[in-house]
Amino acid sequence: MLTQVLHPEGYHGRSWYRGFFEGWYLKLVDAAGEHALAVIPGISLDRDRDQAHCFVQVLDGRRGTATYHRFPLDVLTARRDTFDVRIGANRFGLTGMTLDLDGSGSRIVGEVQFRGVQPWPVTLLSSGAMGPFAYMPWMECYHGVVSFDHALEGTLAIDGRPIVWDGGRGYMEKDWGRSFPHAWVWMQSNHFGSAGTSLMASVAIIPWLGSAFRGFMVGLWHQGRLLRWATYTGARIEHLAVQDDVVSLRILGGWGNTRGLGLELVAQRATSAPLLGPRRGAMSERVSETLSAIITLRLTQAGDPHDVLYEDKGVHAGLEAVGELLRLVS
Questions:
Q1: Complete DSSP assignment for 140-188
Q2: Which of 54, 153, 210, 234 lies 20 to 30 A from 78 at CA?
Q3: C-alpha span between 290 and 296 (Å, rounded)
Q4: Nearest alpha-carbon partner for 27 in 330, 314, 325
Q5: Mean pLDDT of 14-23
Q6: Average pLDDT, the chain
Q7: Residues in contact with 292: Cβ distance below 8 Å, sequence separation at least 6, in sequence order
Q8: Strands 261-268, 282-301: pairing kind
């Protein structure tokens, strides 16, 4: 248990038999911003054992297409104490990934290296993005940020067309548990005007001991330090709205290094593509995601919109708004 808490990036599935999922999310944007991919290796332990499998999903953010590559469970190997996952000839880890995918109407082969990964810090008292909730064994879904930002180097050939990733930027996170929430908003960008700045924000309906609450976690990596607003830090949501073209969020810090700091986020929605998400371990949910959103970010003192400490715009942003959204925003 402690190894899994202190290493959210590692594999958590060995103690599960049915009704479990785990997936790592690797986002890549090339130096020119012409290509954006999300590569998602994972495992689905369906309650129907005959349907259990591992997989690699690939979202092409510019073409607006997604492919799902399915593999038998016995080709999966993974470590618990670090991010090191192999699915057949495909390998994923903290230093890079190797792809050899053929099927679902797409052929992807090549290798990309990662340089200078920056994870959400993990301590005994605050295990990464989940904070103390990482110790709660009844959570429906757990989340980790494997790298806020890192450099890319290498080449992938997609359907015979080589794409060079040298000078591009990457981001990595992961989820595991039984199911995605019934409703959530998620946004992410590490392409701001200030180099090295990265944002991840998530708001969701969290089941809790027979009831539910609206929980959230926001991490802003800026100028070499992490600012975090979360349910477990006493921060609060002052505004959340999901409209056809815009998702907006305003939060005010509780204790810790965001005490008295407000954060305003406005994400412009864009054309999305469908991914598969988990429900009781089975990859049966439709999740629409874009990699072309634009996030306007404003950091303020004491929530005063006129006392702006930092303002920027993030492009090539990932954005999801899924499920019972009326329940989420109310």
A1: SEEEEEEEEEEEEEEEEEETTEEEE-TT-EEEEEEEEES---SEEEEEE
A2: 153
A3: 16
A4: 314
A5: 81
A6: 93
A7: 36, 61, 62, 270, 271, 316, 317
A8: antiparallel
CA atoms of 171 and 113, how far apart (whole Å)? 12
Q: How far apart, in whole angstroms, are the C-alpha atoms of residue 299 and residue 284?
A: 38
Burial (CB count <10 Å: 0-12, 13-18, 19+), residue 286: exposed
Domains, the chain, in order of start with CATH, read 2-329 (2.40.370.10)
The pLDDT assigned to 211 comes to: 84
For residue 159 the two structure tokens come to 């359907």
Nearest one of 214, 310, 215, 307 to 265, comparing CA atoms: 310
- For 16-65, the DSSP string reads --SSEEEEEEEEEE-TTSS-EEEEEEEEEE-SSGGG-EEEEEEEETTTTE
What is the total residue count of the chain? 330
Q: Which residue has the tokens 């790298």?
A: 147
* 199-218 per-position pLDDT tens digit: 999 999 998 877 889 999 99
